[in-house]
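ok new one. same drill as before - structure tokens go in, u give me an amino acid for every spot. 425 of them this time. try not to just spam alanines like last time pls lmao
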């Protein structure tokens, strides 16, 4: 029987899910992929740790055992982090082994190096699981939508923040309580910084933008802001404006360059992304031929992520069977500029506390006018003898103009505080 032997690097949540899924699908793998799959080695850090359901003889802490084993033709990297993952993947590719990875941190920084190395050695380097867990998006962008000129990708690609914002919207929780609940349920890490500050989503958006626009975008290019400053008052105003607040990864391919960022945005309830709740993820794509398409599902977790990893593994096995590994490698054949974030245009929701006295609104309007900011809506609902809460919604304005306007506003004595600045989709 034709058997493909694989190695798994890492046996955490995802690695364990991959191992279990290989065992679960063993009886149909030959018909599905064209060959049987056999896990020959699993690289772990701690050989003494007991692992339920995994044969001890499969475990090794010696990378060379895997690298120098000519029988192993597929390496599945689910360790995470930049090193030693980068070195191991490059060595595997140079040795003629195909690699499947779920490592968003590494791919967002060094994806072009890995893809170029795979292409040079005519082997596969696939990474569907690196962006949206179980949701197919990399393969659709590279293959199913390859005939399109894609101009926009907008996504909810972090389940932790989406869960937190859902609880704040639907149950009235404040940020701290919603975060604590997410941690109790395992949706958030003990240190949630990468999630709640938008860093995790930023890496995923960099990867998607690179593939969609055929030009390299790295994590450094992505402007990132998190959700830690979102309050119950902001949620209430969003409801009043028939909108919800979501942490969105946004990438546009414009005539003047690629715009890419991650930040909280108010999005109208009729938009498909507005209905994505709890820890679910979704990616919305606009192409010139397909028009609008949305991909929705579980963006993380043991088996959703393992599903994406195994989809790539099956693809590699099929390619091995037909002698065509390396047929789809790096698709970044353009060299498009990345637009400075200050030149990106957005609509803004601004909530501020001001002195309740005549002339304040006129002073604000003058500052905005001086900085080319056009106001579309002014709301004043809560006031006391000493102070009033003022909400201003703007037309699309350059980020640099808005920042300069905000600095000028804080020099006006009657403006006590700028409480929230949220973009509108």
């Amino acid at each position: 029987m034709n058997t493909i032997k694989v190695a798994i690097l890492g046996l955490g949540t995802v690695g364990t899910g991959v191992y279990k899924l290989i065992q679960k699908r063993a009886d149909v793998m030959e018909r599905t992929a064209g060959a049987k799959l056999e896990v020959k080695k699993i690289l772990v850090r701690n050989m003494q740790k007991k692992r339920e359901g995994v044969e001890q003889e499969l475990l090794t802490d010696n990378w060379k055992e895997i690298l120098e084993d000519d029988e192993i033709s597929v390496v599945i990297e689910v360790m995470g982090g930049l090193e030693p993952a980068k070195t191991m993947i490059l060595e595997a590719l140079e040795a003629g082994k195909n690699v499947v990875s779920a490592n968003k941190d590494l791919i967002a920084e060094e994806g072009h190096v890995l893809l170029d190395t795979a292409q040079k050695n005519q082997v596969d380097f696939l990474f569907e699981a690196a962006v949206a867990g179980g949701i197919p998006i990399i393969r659709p962008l590279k293959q199913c939508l390859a005939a399109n000129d894609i101009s926009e990708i907008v996504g909810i690609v972090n389940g932790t923040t989406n869960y937190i914002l859902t609880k704040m919207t639907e149950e009235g929780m404040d940020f701290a309580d919603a975060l604590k609940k997410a941690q109790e349920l395992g949706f958030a890490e003990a240190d949630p910084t990468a999630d709640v500050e938008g860093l995790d989503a930023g890496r995923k958006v960099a990867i998607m933008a690179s593939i969609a626009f055929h030009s390299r975008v790295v994590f450094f290019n992505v402007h990132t802001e998190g959700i830690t400053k979102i309050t119950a008052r902001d949620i209430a105003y969003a409801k009043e404006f028939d909108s919800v607040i979501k942490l969105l990864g946004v990438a546009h391919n414009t005539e003047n360059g690629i715009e890419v960022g991650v930040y909280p945005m108010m999005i109208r309830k009729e938009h498909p992304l507005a209905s994505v709740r709890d820890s679910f993820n979704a990616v919305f794509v606009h192409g010139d031929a397909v028009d609008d398409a949305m991909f929705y599902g579980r963006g993380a977790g043991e088996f959703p992520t393992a599903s994406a990893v195994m989809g790539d593994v099956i693809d590699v096995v099929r390619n091995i069977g037909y002698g065509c590994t390396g047929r789809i490698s790096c698709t970044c054949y353009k060299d498009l500029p990345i637009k400075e974030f200050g030149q990106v245009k957005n609509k803004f929701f601004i909530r501020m506390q001001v002195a309740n006295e005549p002339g304040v609104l006129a002073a604000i309007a003058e500052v905005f006018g001086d900085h080319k900011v056009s106001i579309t809506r002014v709301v004043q609902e809560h006031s006391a003898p000493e102070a009033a809460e003022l909400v201003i919604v703007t037309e699309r304005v350059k980020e640099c103009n808005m920042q300069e306007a905000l600095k000028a506003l804080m020099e006006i004595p009657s403006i006590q505080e700028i409480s929230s600045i949220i973009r509108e989709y």
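The chain is about 35% helix and 30% strand. and btw The chain has a mean pLDDT of 95.
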